[in-house]
Every structure is written in structure tokens, then in C-alpha cells.
What we know:
Elements: H1 3-6, H2 9-26, H3 32-53, H4 56-65, H5 70-75, H6 82-85, H7 93-114, H8 116-137, H9 147-160, E1 165-170, E2 173-178, H10 179-195, H11 204-221, H12 244-255, H13 259-271, E3 282-285, E4 288-291, E5 296-298
Antiparallel strand pairs: 1-2, 3-4, 4-5
Helix pairs in contact: 2-3, 3-7, 7-8, 7-9, 8-9, 8-11, 9-11, 10-11, 12-13
Amino acid sequence: MDLGVIVSPYSSLGLALIFVFIILGLKKKMYMVQSLLLANGAVFFLLFLYRTILPLNDYMLIHFDHVFWAEGIVAGSHPYGSILLSMFTHFDPLHIIFNMVFLLILGTPFEERVGSKRFLLIYLVSGLGAELVFSLFSFSTPVIGASGAIAGIIGAFAALYPRDEVFMPVVVILMRVKVIYGAMIYLATQIFWTMMPGNPGIAYTAHLGGFFFGLFMAPLITKKRDWSPKEPDFSALKELANGKELQTILKRIEKEDEPEVRKAWLEEFANKNICPQCISKMKLVGNSIECSNGHRYRF
């Protein structure tokens, strides 16, 4: 078999980057959502680099090797690697930004509930399902983008945690809603646009395919788990709360429910502190307050 049909030389680099970031996520070096964000960004940057240094005709051929084209794959003339690579390929900056915002907002709370491995499995299978459904309706039309896989996350979230409240993009507004309501609104809009005449260049059938793959697959591969966000323990910071002002800030930190506001108070607490062990300035680093000499207070 011709290896060029499996994966083209240029697209093989994109696939390698995808696998590298996925492995980092599986090894717990970062959230899987972060790994997927970086993988999508890396492929986009790689194509941008090709477009910058190569003649336009060569770039167009390389870009086409990144898209999912069912007719070409069945005929054996299009790289099989595009089945995966197309899920990490985007047309322009607006396309990738829009998808990555959705992935970050929806993927993070879902991954916290089901874990990195199950999240990745649902994401990838939903993406493949989106391509399959799209090819049934548009066999000769190429398609790219992560939106089918992201739609699968929405469907899976609705299947497993329908009553949980999270921030979701509702039409064009970011709102805190129950997952089932956000998913229903998303599904209704996709069905509406699918039935509208004309082709705006958006693969709504792929979105629907991904959504239903996630919806029906998630209960089969993972059981719903009782979940609540882990509340940090700030008792270790009491050693740093010297003086009335710092004690007041620490009390605000302990009482604050909004993560972003709490983070702001933690930064204020750290910036106003001096390490009691070496008298150097301190700063907030992740889930700890530490100084430049490595003295750390975790919470």
C-alpha cells in the first residue's frame, strides 16, 4: 500500500504534534482540554507557516491533505490520516477561536467530572461520528474543524449531568444554565439551520452527528458520578496572615464562592506578603503561594 495515501509527508508533522499533546494530557501534565487546545493551535500555526513559506498552489495541496474528504478516502486517493487531522484543522482565525472558546468553556467542567481518558475518548469518537454523518449527506464535500467533536461533548454532558449548572454559550451570550437547557437550545439551533435552504459553509449535519454520538455513547463508556468542585483548604495560609489586613483578606478568600474573585484576593494576599523563612517577596503560583527561593504554602 502506498504510504502517501495513509498520510502525506507534510500532514504527518501535524499528526505528530497532535499525538504529542494528547500524550502530555494522558500523563497528567495538563488538562486534556488544554492538550487539545494546544494541539489545535499547533496545527493551525503549522498551516500558517506553510502558507507563509510555500507557493500558494503547494500550500493549497497541503491544506487539502488535512481535510476530511469521504469520497477521496473511499477511492483510496486521499490520506487516511486526514480522518483525525481534519478534527484539528481550521479554516481561519475566527473559525479556530470560536471552536476553542467552546471547547474551553464546556470541556473543562465536563473533563473534571468524567476524567481525562473518558473525555478524550468521547471527544475523538464524537468527532469521527460527526464526519461519518456528514459524509452520508455530503459524500463529495470536504469538511474540517473541531465543532463536531465539541458537539459530542455537549451531548455527552447532557446525557450524564443534565441538571448541573455550568457556563454555556446560549446563542451568542455566555450564561450559567442547566446543561440540559443549554444542550436543547444548541440542538434546536443546529436543526433549524440544517433545514434552512442554502449552504453557508457550516457543516450542521456534522454538528448533529457529533451531538448524538456523544449523547448515546457517553452512558455506555462511563457511569455518572456524584461530583462537586473540590473546595481548597486555606488553613496553610494562616501562617502567612500576619497583621489585621492580611487576616481580613484571608477571611474574604475563605468565604468567596466565585473562583475568579477568589483568585484576585489570593493574588492580593500573595503580593502583600513576605516569606517568613527568607524575607523575600511572594507570589501566587497555581494552588500555592511561594517565594523565589522555593518556600511554598499549598492550599
